[in-house]
Design a protein that fits this description.
The chain is of the alpha/beta class. Helix content is about 40%, strand content about 15%. The chain has a nine-stranded mixed beta sheet with strand order 7-6-5-4-3-2-1-8-9. The radius of gyration is 17 Å and the shape is globular.
Length: about 260
Amino acid sequence: MKIDLHFHTIVSKDSAIPVNMATIKAIKKRGLNGIAITDHDSFAAVAKMSRLLAREGLAAIPGEEVHTPGKGEILCYFIQEPIKPGSWEEVIDAARMQDGLVVLAHPFDYIRGNWMAYFAGKHRDQLPRLLARIDGLETYNARNYSPGGNKWARERAKAGNFLGTAGSDAHNAFEIGCAFTEFDDDGDPEALRNCFKRKTLLPQDHENLDGVILPGYPLRRFAYAVVKKLHSGLNSVLPPFKRWQAALHSSPQTDKNVARFQD
């Protein structure tokens, strides 16, 4: 079954996707079997979205995308209560208290929240401890505008034997289903959780637009990226871009921190 593991409703301040049956029908039309509801620092839409999805026979994974200091974001899955923003230790502890699973969101997207400070920055010494606590990395994010960012995430996940996930990170209806993760089991919550634990998920490694009619999608995406860059300003974009470049030129096979973690 196909599940979009990164999805935002209008509850997220930067999303325009309503919580209604029109959205559910759009999800079904995209050929998805379900979604993970991962609003920014909010759990408010989970109950209603889950009920609406169930009406159409679609699976719902309750979740949240939680901010941490330094822009890094964590996708928390299979939780029952909201998790407050905080340090990555606090967020992971809160998820574990609910028997939740945690994945680093778009870890190498230099424009948006990323984990560059841990993989190739000032917090690099904390990387082994961070990797020991997470369940996986988001290896394909359809909104990752950083060239090579998704590829680098896949390489890191492979080097560390981590679970890889994929999601559209949809904030607009036309983005729904542009990326998804394939599960080898049905929509039962426990079965889906077991797929995570067995690492049998299959994230797509390219945008699957064959069954989705999106006129002008590449142009929209390019224009959106340009607007985000102009809005943030060169002063905020260039420093993380340099960190991103440094990360791309380091090799996961020769990364001592990752090697030490694997040992």
